Amino acid sequence: MLVTHLLARGQVLAQGPDWISFDVGAFVDQFWSNTFDGLTYGAIYALIAMGYTMVYGVLQLINFAHSEVFIVGAYALFFTLAALGFGPSAPNLNVFALVGDLVLAMLVAMLAAGAIAILLERVAYRPLRRRKAPRLAFLITAIGASFAIQYAIFAWRGPNPEPALIMFRQQPVFEVFGAIIYDQQIVIFVAALVLMVVVDQFVNRTRLGRGLRAVAQDPDTATLMGVNRERVITLTFLIGGFLAGAAALFYVMKVPAGVQYNGGFILGIKAFAAAVLGGIGNIRGALIGGLLLGVIGNYGQTLFGNAQWTDVVAFVVLVGILMVRPTGLLGESLGKARV
Amino acid sequence: MLRSRRAAVLAGGVALTLALAGCAANQEPAPGGGGGAGNRPDIPAVTTLPVPADAANPAGNGQAACAPTTTLAYAGALTGSNAQLGVNIVNGVQLAVNQHNQNNPNCQVQLKKFDTEGTPDRAPGIVTQVASEKDTIGVIGLPFSGESKATGAIFQQAGLTHLSPSATNPDLTKNGWTTFFRALANDNVQGPAAAKFMTGKLGATKVCVIQDDSDYGTGLAKATNDALGPVAADCQDKVTTGQKDFAAVVSKVVAAQPQVVFYAGYYAEGAPLDQQLSTRGFQGVFLGPDGVKDPEFVKLAGDASSNAFFTCPCTPGELVPQFADAYKGVSGGSAPGTYSLEGYDSATILLKAIDSGAKDRAAVQNYVKSYDAPGFSKQFKWDPSGELATTKVFGYKVENGQIVPVGEIG
Hints:
The complex is a heterodimer of chains A (339) and B (410). Chain A has 339 residues and is mostly helical. Chain A has helices at residues 2-7, 24-29, 31-59, 66-83, 95-130, 135-157, 183-205, 207-217, 219-224, 229-254, 265-278, 283-304, 308-324, and strands spanning 172-176, 179-182. In chain A, strands 1-2 form a two-stranded antiparallel ribbon. In chain A, helix 3 (31-59) runs parallel beside helix 7 (183-205), helix 3 packs antiparallel against helix 10 (229-254) and helix 7 packs across helix 8. Chain B contains 12 helices and 14 strands. The longest helix of chain B is centred in the N-terminal third of the chain and has 25 residues, at 2-26. Chain B has helices spanning 2-26, 83-103, 123-132, 145-158, 187-199, 215-228, 247-256, 267-279, 295-301, 321-331, 340-355, 361-369, and strands at residues 71-76, 110-115, 136-140, 162-164, 180-182, 207-211, 236-238, 260-264, 285-288, 308-312, 373-374, 379-380, 394-399, 402-408. Chain B has 2 domains: 37-48 and 188-312 and 393-408, Rossmann fold, CATH 3.40.50; 71-185 and 318-370, 3-Layer(aba) Sandwich (Rossmann fold). Chain B is α/β, with parallel strands linked by helices and 410 residues long. The chains are: A mainly alpha (339), B alpha/beta (410).
């Protein structure tokens, strides 16, 4: 009885004051399309969240400038695609040429983001580490570096976003539970997942990955065992930068006009929240957290009919989960993340 | 060795999934990709605009005489993220002053320009400075509603008349200010005009109204919804400033299959919304108000923008040849933009006040209060609150990547 009542199309439960109302009908109708869209966007969150989580795992540092690492990658991607002839309309390319172009642009974006991540580490964090600065100093430096990069881009490119670059025309591929799945969603989700599995396997199975885990667990002992700590730190920033660069490709694929000086800011906060949600310092946690945050945000928007509730819902869930599991869904440590 | 293998796996995996995209991308558009009624209405662009023969001209009769210290001021955005609108206006103002001064050797009016960056927190300081300069007897500005709201009381206290060429928030004229006049229709006029345009010329029987969270967007959406009534009753959504991903909104719209989506807000969110709607198979019309009507919209939405129409209480200055040609001489070659003509007309009215012998702020205020004459954009006559007696709203559309007028819609 209650269920039929709730399922009534366009049912508004709390009408009257304009500030809040529930559209349960739309929420049910669009449940699956919101889920798949949320997973797509969540995969992008997760890729960026990896950068936060790995740096935190190794250094216990929240690298707030990671959102700018991402946006530098996005600019590199934009210029590469523009140089390859992409524009406001989907190009007429055959499959191989298109894939070739996109992979090339992604590699350039990954290199640019990786380079800026390492540069950031060298310029902003390493000098502090040498002087054994307190944790707080790193945090302030991270925020400062974030603003510095953001406004350097502002001074260079101005306040407006770059023009839209359309990579390919989205096509419906198949239908699940009445929701149409588009090729773009599959590409973003699967490619992001592949990248994350590769990094997870790299950390868990290779010699370099073992060194990385060792430093995360106990830096002093790891150093005594012959692990080069500085090299591990550089590697961590590099991997985070690579993933941010890859995320830039998928983000611009989804939001063609998203390349803007402050375009990484909100995304960075969401990705950081995703990392905390999954358990900061935990690679698989970043994936779970990102996907969850993406899906929940969409549910919130439809349920309340108002995007201002997207973030409210997402962060209420975040707080709720952290109250039950203070270290996030999968727990905190990078070193222990090899279940 | 190990590393290179990993890299190969990575590159291979990504290439594989991208290949998947390519396969799908190469197919022809599949039918039934989702909502929206096809058959977009074709409303032809207009290329001429009737202008009253006796429209007020800043040149006057050439016999004007005034003190050499006589000054008008422009206050509004010249830099910052919303600078373009201010630049459009200030070029129109500059043109009017230039034409006046060329024809009236005994009355050389000075024009001072003040940059508020369009922000309500910066504007009060600037306006205080403008008001303190006693030779300034009239102001063109401020362009935006927020900064106008923040500074109206300062103008009022100084007895300094200001004509806003572009502030549309309906509440601005409800403050009891006697020095505020605006040269265009407010949003309570634009909203119903947009509603009439949608259900009339665009032939919509179902409309989705999406609004942002700004004063402008919420006010305009309310006025539009009130006029639309049941046509838009069950398709409403709210987005937020800075939002980039509109998946949830797009799902709702595509499922509702409206002929028109009306977006009450600015181009920064409107453009990606239109783009994401189009890629998910929405085939109807995207209608935006003056906050969306900007060349930047076309740039950010890509070729998706070809489904866009706009409403704007701005008269298309580009269709007034004598104005458009002269404007290019001031603007460095670019054509008149949104609110250029309103800026020109506003400055003309203040110049005519000076030519009529007004020497101080009180005389200018009295002149404007009882003004009743045609301008290039419309007839100018104000009620005591500063609203125009007659207003015009124009329709525009995107054609070949350019925004072109389609005539008057209300």
